[in-house]
Fold:
Amino acid sequence: MFAEYITKLLLVFFGYAYPAFECFKTLEQPHGNYTVQLRFWCQYWIIVAILTVVEMLLEVLVSLIPMYGEAKVAFLVYLWYPKTKGSDLVYETFLRPVVMQYEPNIEERFRNLRPKLGQLLVFYLRNFTERGYTLFQDVLQYVVSRRSGNEKIKGSSSKNKKHDELEDFAEALLGTNAKQRPSRQRK
Structure:
């Protein structure tokens, strides 16, 4: 467990934070070797993005590979390390030929997908906003109902004060006396 945490920490630092800082330094330097370095870092981030997508799609299989996290850290360092400059090799040898072969097809699919993505985003935002609000109200009603069930045990303890504050908060949010509000039936 601790080794996994250390691996994730190394991955964040060596795979994302350090390359992002180097990319920042490239963008902020005066003109000169700017385009060569910028191309190198663009290649790096394209490879990292594709690796991330493949990991997400094959998450179950990736989790079965022993020492995958350590291998990923080593691979990402290989990609940006100045002596190896693996990004050039991986991009030019493997990635570029494949993407160039399928680029028109990929571009067409993205062009067709863009309008549908907007509609899908609006659908999910509406749906999750409404359900989130309903869930929030249900949780508040549950907390208040638990409190009203425990009203027989009143005292001046800090626990009861917290319950009273929470009940007042729930009543203010719901706009009525939460104890008297009928509970909702789930659909």
User: Anything to note?
Assistant: DSSP finds six helices and no strands in the chain. The two ends are 41 Å apart (CA to CA). The chain has a mean pLDDT of 80. The longest helix spans residues 86-149.
